[in-house]
Write a structure and sequence with these properties.
elongated, binds N,N-dimethyl-L-histidine, 18% strand, alpha/beta
């Protein structure tokens, strides 16, 4: 494995380090145990080191960077070892040539074991002296380094044994799980601004940080790695003979090296594919992930399949929500195994997944000072990133932010393929057709629960029970927006009417009970008409009738429609002086920014030249106050959120148990929005009709965003949609704003 060096993170716990030191050193010994001294000396190619060298080099790391540097009175085991077992640290001095590590028949294996014992004894004594945090961090780095070499030991000995025409086995593996899933699909990601990189909790190599923002376009990621069966179709379709699938360098390499199948594959006289594994030559299992392909082959396969490789930020954005479980070295199989489940699977373990991203520094990356700074940064050239770990990676060594890297031609690693595709935008809040249509509801729910992270469009909150609960929310002490906006409209009605002028046509989007617009109607000078648009026909017709009764001279036009899509509006009988769109409630905050801007542009088209928009906007404020507004003490918002699950059960034949989900409201400072989620309290599978959705404990369904704005931010967005601000009214505490905007000439 390529190796990367630790960032200075939270100090590890000394007792934990001492325990891990014993375990990891013992594990290296166990991994080498099935090998003879001859096996352990051989170097089968320049890239692969002898097992004996791995055992010595990892020991040299502790001797050099810990004991020699910090342990008083430490006696170096053999001064010559610094030359033999330094890998690539220029600052530590000259070293033996890498391609000649296999020439080291001396020191014999017994001496290397004595070296390990000497260093282990000294390290244990040193750990008892209570080393400082930065030294403990270095020891942790040494342990992580040794785990990387455990993987390399297996990877390299596989290559060495494969050179033997009798195909000797390294071990007898434990049996595999007999269950198999053969259904491969896609998970959708909506794209947008994500954060990737290590979040500072626990150990990470320095190249995994700093954590930073990345913009993603909507994409799809395959639920499973590419299987051998799928790869055989590529081979049989002439994949290795068709230049157009290949990158130029890859095609040259493929020709020069005569590639016809993944590394370690051979087609026997009976026409069957066999693969050399650490348990000898075995039939290629069509259901197992394809392994030992170079980046060039992975990329060619993806092109042939009409897809591409995922970028590393895409991979991480999805992996970050997944539990770190899978087939790792601890399974003692040391070979990728078939998937046992549907849905997103095998993100971790089995095979390292090539990404389409070059291994480069993240913004703000700084290598550590001193020789350990050479661990990582100096390899950021000409290599590609792989993610997720493999069947020879130690289980507790991997995380979502982990970046492995190899040259694009490397094939001896346990490297495989997961496909990705660009996807049309699939929006969180406003996609799909209108919420009355059962097929559209089912399609939106299935798509949302198949996505990673899982999500549901918030427009489905508002069935009869949801609308009732929302009315209750508006009356809660904690939920200030409704009462504050109403107060602003009441206190400023005359001024607003003056700005709007006489003879206006009002168009209210999401009109609901039509309460707020009546404050305007009372103050306006001879309004021409009110066009009320709402998705819920029943409430719309009742409320329109009430308004007609109170304002007999006003033409009231009710339009039942999902206003998030373009809606053709009826013409009023009397020609208005201007059209004014009214969009109260800060519902604009429930749109994603791109959709919000598109929606405002649509309003601009509707109201036309000289038209205006009067809009309620919830302002940025103390996050604690915001969270309270969406997580009230009486649990009404929780009931509102969970009602979505009850609605799915009733209308789509679902079996959600709402009590196994927890309501979460949190403020996402970076995005400037309140997010509502439903978090699964346990591992569970939920059925909706014929579809099954697995939830890991702690996994969430993202149900709503409610963006909050600084006035200038809103002005900017409205400006991009073609509106200029006329004026704005707020409350005494600056909680909420009613803004008046006019179409810019
Ligand atoms: C409708 N919309 C403006 C409400 C909001 O504040 O985002 C919906 C809501 N969700 C939870 N509480 C209220």
């Amino acid at each position: 494995m390529s190796k990367s060096q630790a960032s200075g993170l939270k100090a590890p716990n000394p007792a934990d380090i001492a325990r891990r030191f014993s375990e990891i050193r013992e594990q290296s010994r166990k991994l080498a145990a099935p090998l003879s001294p001859e096996d352990q000396c051989i170097q089968s190619m320049p890239d692969a080191s002898p097992s004996k060298w791995h055992l010595a080099h990892t020991t040299w790391f502790f001797e050099t960077f810990i004991l020699t540097a910090f342990a008083d009175g430490y006696a170096v085991f053999d001064p010559g070892y610094n030359y033999l077992f330094n890998s690539y640290y220029e600052q530590i001095g000259a070293r033996h040539a890498r391609p000649e590590r296999g020439m080291l028949t001396r020191p014999p294996l017994d001496d290397i074991h004595a070296f390990r014992d000497h260093v282990d004894t000294a390290m244990k004594a040193f750990l008892e002296t209570g080393p400082a945090d930065d030294i403990l961090n270095l020891i942790e780095l040494g342990l992580q380094h040794e785990q990387q070499h455990q993987e390399l030991l297996l990877t390299d000995i596989k290559h060495a044994l494969s050179m033997n025409p009798l195909f000797p086995a390294y071990h007898r593996p434990r049996p595999m799980d007999a269950t198999r899933n053969r259904e491969h699909g896609w998970v959708d990601h909506p794209g947008g601004l994500v954060e990737i990189g290590h979040d500072g909790d626990g150990f990470a190599f320095d190249c995994e940080g700093p954590r930073h923002k990345v913009w993603l376009e909507p994409f799809r990621l395959a639920t499973h790695p590419v299987s051998n069966g799928e790869y055989i179709r590529f081979i049989e379709d002439g994949g290795y003979q068709t230049a157009e699938h290949w990158l130029s360098d890859g095609w040259t390499m493929c020709q020069e090296q005569g590639w016809e199948a993944p590394f370690y594959w051979r087609k026997d006289d009976d026409g069957a594919w066999r693969i050399f594994t650490l348990s000898g030559l075995r039939p290629v299992d069509p259901d197992s992930p394809v392994c030992h392909v170079s980046y060039y082959e992975a990329d060619a396969f993806a092109r042939w399949a009409g897809a591409r490789l995922p970028r590393e930020a895409e991979w991480e954005a999805i992996a970050a929500s997944q539990p770190i479980s899978g087939h790792f070295a601890g399974n003692d199989i040391f070979h990728p195994t078939p998937a046992t489940t549907g849905g997103l699977a095998q993100m971790f373990g089995d095979v390292w997944e090539w990404t389409g991203s070059a291994y480069a520094s993240y913004p703000g990356y700084q290598p550590a000072e001193g020789a350990v700074g050479e661990y990582n940064g100096k390899f950021m050239s000409g290599q590609m990133v792989l993610r997720g770990g493999s069947c020879v990676t130690p289980e507790n060594h991997i995380r979502a932010s982990y970046r492995n890297f190899f040259h694009p031609w490397a094939r001896w690693q346990f490297s495989g393929i997961r496909l990705a595709k660009d996807a049309p935008a699939s929006r969180v809040g406003t996609d799909g057709s209108d919420g009355n249509d059962e097929d559209a509801f089912r399609a939106d729910v299935v798509r949302g629960l198949s996505a990673v992270p899982k999500r549901l469009p918030p427009k489905y909150f508002y069935d009869a029970e949801g609308a009732r609960l929302f009315t209750q929310i508006c009356e809660l002490d904690e939920y200030y927006p409704t009462r504050t906006e109403t107060g602003i409209l009441r206190n400023n009605a005359a001024d607003i009417a003056e700005h709007l002028g006489p003879d206006v046509m009002l168009i209210e989007y999401g009109s609901g009970a039509l309460d707020k617009v009546r404050i305007l109607l009372d103050a306006l000078n001879d309004p021409v008409s009110l066009c009320a648009i709402d998705i819920s026909a029943e409430q719309l017709l009742d409320a329109s009738d009430e308004v007609r009764a109170v304002y007999p001279d006003l033409e009231v036009m009710a339009v039942e429609a999902d206003f998030t899509h373009a809606v053709p509006l009826p013409l009023p009988k009397r020609k208005p002086a201007s059209k004014v769109a009214f969009f109260p409630g800060s519902t604009i905050g429930n749109f994603d920014p791109v959709d919000a801007e598109a929606f405002l542009s649509g309003i601009r088209e509707t109201v036309g030249d000289g038209g205006m928009l009067l809009i309620g906007v919830d302002l940025k404020k103390d996050p604690a106050r915001l969270v309270d507004a969406y997580d009230d003490a009486k649990g009404v918002t929780e009931a509102f959120n969970k009602n979505l699950l009850t609605r799915i059960n009733r209308e789509l034949d679902g079996d959600f148990n709402p009590s196994l989900f927890r309501h979460i409201a949190r403020y996402n400072m970076l995005a400037g929005r309140i997010e509502m989620h439903l978090e699964s309290c346990t591992d569970q599978t939920v059925h909706i009709g014929a579809n099954a959705f697995h939830f890991a404990a702690g996994e969430t369904i993202h149900t709503e965003n409610s963006y909050k704005f600084a006035p200038a931010e809103f002005d900017e967005m409205a400006g991009r949609a073609g509106f200029g601000k006329v004026t704005m009214w707020t409350d005494a505490d600056n909680l909420f704003a009613v803004m008046l905007l006019r179409v810019m000439a």
